[in-house]
């Protein structure tokens, strides 16, 4: 399937920015499930200083902001050929060793709720247990936008019983690690069947199985990623794979607008 993705992000400020830095993880790479045919980044109000591959294998760009801009615009756009590989993205790549993905982070730190959830996953084959974990999380955490934010931990979302794809991925990664699997967070895009325009990118989780490598599980939708998914970046949690992050110097108030389209 050939997908066209456009991801527009615009920051508006009520006064000029003295200085700032932004880190972008917005450039997908080709792999077993996708071939990137074309991709571009258009940036206004900031300047690209350096690009590199980070410890997780993500294409990463650093931008500097100065010259008193009131608006910063970032547009990532391109065409990607995708195929259904049953969620299997293959061997571990990047500088980060597998054992690093066995460690929890502040966003995935398990409390009593996640520990009870993981303990309730029955016996059986490794793949069967991970699919059971995905189904259980989908039952326990209803998809309800606006009930959590980017600082919400997996434990908090599970206790609330509501969240979004980011929360499902955090709960899955935390639980899978308790079950003995290296696990990671994946950010990317999903072509939805009922809408082209979206207000946020998508996220899911992967667990590492001997003999298969990394296998994806999207608890928000109850499936392993198929040809409708485009992967962009990975990390141990949202903070390590988030599309855009940064710091600003000054007291300017920020207004953010995100517009994403994913279509065949």
Give structural notes.
The chain is α+β, with helices and mostly antiparallel strands and 264 residues long. Helices cover 18% and strands 42% of the residues. The chain contains 5 helices and 16 strands. Strand 4 and strand 5 form a beta hairpin. Helix 1 (112-119) packs across helix 4 (165-178) and helix 2 (126-140) crosses helix 4.
Tell me briefly what this model is:
With 264 residues, this protein is an alpha+beta fold. It has helices spanning 112-119, 126-140, 154-160, 165-178, 238-241, and strands at residues 2-13, 19-27, 34-44, 47-53, 59-65, 71-82, 88-90, 142-143, 162-163, 183-190, 197-198, 202-209, 213-217, 229-235, 244-249, 254-263. The strands form 4 sheets. Strands 3-6-1-16-11 form a 5-stranded antiparallel sheet, with no helix packed on it. A 5-stranded antiparallel sheet has the order 7-13-12-10-14. Strands 4-5-2-15 form a 4-stranded antiparallel sheet, with no helix packed on it.
């Amino acid at each position: 399937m050939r997908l066209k993705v456009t991801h527009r992000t615009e920051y508006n400020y009520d006064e000029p920015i003295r200085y700032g830095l932004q880190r972008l993880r917005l450039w997908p790479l080709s792999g077993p499930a996708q071939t990137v045919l074309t991709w571009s980044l258009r940036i206004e109000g900031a300047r690209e200083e350096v690009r590199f591959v980070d410890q997780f294998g993500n294409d990463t760009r650093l931008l500097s902001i100065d010259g008193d801009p009131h608006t910063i615009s970032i547009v990532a756009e391109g065409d990607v050929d995708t195929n259904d590989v049953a969620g299997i993205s293959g061997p571990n790549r990047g500088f980060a060793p597998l054992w690093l993905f066995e460690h929890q982070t502040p966003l995935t730190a398990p409390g009593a709720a996640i520990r009870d959830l993981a303990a309730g996953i029955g016996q059986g084959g490794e793949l069967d247990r991970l699919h059971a974990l995905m189904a259980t999380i989908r039952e326990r955490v209803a998809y309800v936008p606006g009930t959590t934010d980017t600082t919400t931990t997996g434990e908090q979302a599970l206790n609330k019983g509501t969240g979004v794809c980011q929360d499902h991925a955090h709960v899955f990664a935390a639980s899978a690690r308790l079950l003995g699997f290296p696990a990671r967070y994946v950010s990317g895009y999903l072509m939805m069947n009922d809408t082209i325009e979206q207000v946020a990118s998508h996220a899911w989780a992967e667990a590492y199985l001997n003999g298969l490598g990394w296998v994806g599980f999207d608890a928000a939708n109850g499936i392993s990623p198929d040809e409708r998914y485009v992967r962009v970046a990975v990390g141990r949690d949202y903070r390590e794979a988030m599309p855009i992050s940064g710091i600003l110097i000054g007291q300017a108030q920020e207004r953010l607008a995100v517009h994403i389209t994913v279509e065949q």
